[in-house]
Design brief:
With about 280 residues, the chain is mostly helical. The chain contains 10 helices and no strands. It binds adenosine-5'-triphosphate and magnesium ion (MG). The site of magnesium ion (MG) has 2 residues, from loops.
Length: about 280
């Protein structure tokens, strides 16, 4: 088992970088929007590739760009399904961005709507529906709860998460850390309960994203390369304590923020030159 935890110094560095990028995002709102789009695209590729190795990332890139053979079903029905779900996922994330601006609370209807948006064009009968039978997670010891408990478990935890989510801490460092903890909690809740027959991983990660969006954070992208660290952290979590996932998210977020830092440096240099600084 390989759990990754940032050192105190790395955590400080993460928070300093977060503050720096937040300031740059406020100064250059168009660049911030571009960075969010870039991260959403990266997320679409990695959130899919982390689960299913059959459609490699290079093909997901083709699908995301709408490139290649126009009618993907002429190649393979499964490939066509991946294409439609990728577009559904992008649509759902954009919808979450707009819901976050309105401070919409987490709810069962929001979760079902997220699932419906992702699957309505590929899996009409299952889109936006909770499972009605037992489900297993491949190669994992965790056994998701009986389907009759899904709604109650989600409802209880959503109420608690909403209470914290909409009362941010005044201390910004504490607020930063609490946001990642809440994101891990929401993410782990869906992963643990596994409310759907399919799509649980992607929806779990998207619900974690939603928490970060409400708090005005940049997206985090869990890279496929870290799949084992990610799964190991989930194995160590419980519904009462998602700290192992939260630690993993900090590790992942440091890399995500490093990825957009260079872009903002380029933007700020270019703008300084224009005004003759
Ligand atoms: N030990 C664990 N405890 C809780 N959740 C876990 C655990 N291991 C994996 N998961 C979650 O389950 C997901 C994989 O389960 P599964 O293959 O059933 O997903 P899925 O419903 O097919 O989702 P998708 O279609 O998005 O891949 C992982 O992405 C992770 O979010
Ligand atoms: Mg699946």
């Amino acid at each position: 088992m390989t759990l990754v935890i940032l050192t105190q110094t790395e955590q400080k560095h993460l928070f300093e970088m977060f503050k720096h990028l937040t300031r740059l995002g406020e100064q250059y709102p168009l660049a911030r929007e571009e960075a969010m789009t870039a991260l959403r695209c990266l997320k679409a590729i990695h959130s899919n590739a982390i689960e299913d190795k059959r459609v490699d990332r290079i093909f997901l890139q083709v699908l995301l760009h709408g490139a290649g053979i126009a009618e993907k079903s002429h190649i393979s029905i499964e490939y066509q399904k991946a294409s439609v779900e990728l577009k559904g996922q992008d649509y759902m994330l954009k919808w979450l961005e707009s819901e976050a601006l309105q401070n919409t609370e987490l709810s069962i209807s929001m979760l079902l709507e997220m699932h419906r948006m992702m699957f309505e064009d590929s899996w009409a009968e299952g889109a936006g529906q909770f499972r009605q039978s037992d489900v297993k997670i491949n190669l994992m010891s965790h056994k998701p709860p009986h389907f009759s408990q899904i709604a109650q478990l989600l409802h209880q935890q959503f109420t608690a998460i909403n209470e914290s989510l909409f009362s941010p801490r005044p201390d910004s460092e504490h607020n930063f850390s609490e946001t990642l903890n809440l994101s891990a909690r929401a993410h782990y809740l869906v992963a643990n309960v596994h409310p759907f027959d399919d799509g649980n991983g992607r929806i779990a990660r998207a619900l974690g994203d939603y928490i970060m969006l409400v708090r005005g954070f940049y997206y985090d992208v869990i890279m496929t390369e870290y799949k084992d660290h990610y799964l190991d952290s989930l194995e160590e979590c419980s519904l009462l304590d998602a700290t192992p996932l939260s630690n993993f998210l900090k590790y992942s977020y440091l890399e995500t923020l490093q990825r957009i830092l260079g872009f903002f440096e380029l933007v700020s240099k270019g703008n300084n030159r224009e005004v003759g600084v």
